[in-house]
From TrEMBL:
Pathway linked to the protein: Lipid metabolism; Glycerolipid metabolism; triacylglycerol biosynthesis
Record protein name field: diacylglycerol O-acyltransferase
Domain O-acyltransferase WSD1-like N-terminal per the UniProt entry, residue ranges: 9-79
Keywords: Acyltransferase, Transferase
Amino acid sequence: MDSPEKFIEDYVSGLSTTTIDPSKPLWDVHLLNLRTAEAAAVGVLRMHHSLGDGTSLMSLLLASILNLHDPESLPTVPVKKRRSDF
């Protein structure tokens, strides 16, 4: 092969023009056993945008409920304490 980098570029470009079958998992893993100047082989992970959207929403949720006094603690959801009339 004359240019593995060009082949990989064309391969990934071709992946971006096809759709992911919704009856299968919403991701593809493509392993290309091609030696390039920077790698012994190449892996391409293609995911449906909804997986990224869900991850972004979960990150936003977790970031909004972190404890500022102890950032290493697990996130908790604030609960309003009820006033007791004893």
